Predict the 3D structure of the following.
Amino acid sequence: MRARPYEFITVAHEGRLTLLTIDRPAAFNALNAAAHEEMAAAFDAFAADDDQWVAIVTGAGKAFCAGHDLKQQAAGGGLVTPSTGFGGLTARFDLTKPVIAAVNGVAMGGGFELALACDVVVASSTAVFALPEPKVGLAALAGGMQRLPRAIGTKRAMALMLTGRQVPAREGLDLGFVTEVVEGDPLPAARAFAAEILACSPMSVRATKEAVLRGLDVPLEQALGEQWDYPAMRRMLASEDAVEGPAAFAAKRPPVWAGR
């Protein structure tokens, strides 16, 4: 395991898995300006590292992320976020590597939006989600107003967003924005998901994520035609992995993915 030093987050590499932990437990892992920049830098490094194929984001202590540091805003610090969005992720639309949220506690405001920007959400049964921005005179400007309706439907999303109501993890599972609920620490289940993803070709995984997300906003016929020209799909089709997979299947052996 390799770790990189930051002040407000920790980043560890476990083989091909990057584990990013928000580490401001005294502030329920709310992100101040410096924490945002550290998150953005960590995701930049993950995106650029050919040896890192999957990421997990979680929080230290009893919270996942309580959103923006409102004390910083009240002191005149504003709501500035990196160009890649809240936590360096919510506006990172070119990331085809999968990201898993291990939600270990409260995920409020931007913290909920951070989870919504992940591809898989594993939550502790004690986790709670909310977009409470209207309660403090703000709005969910880091993707919550766009991603939550796409995930659970407009009417159900409106009921949560217009009231700021807190949603327990099991209700989130029923609504559809949580993938799995576990008792206790969600990190082992998140690692299990990561292991299953890592057993697949990373080229295929990235092509799949890209095609799904880009296909959501266009007609089906258009998506089926355009997917062949998506960058990750073209890289997959021309990759060593596209040769290795069928060869391993024919030889009845496990594939050895090169990731290129």
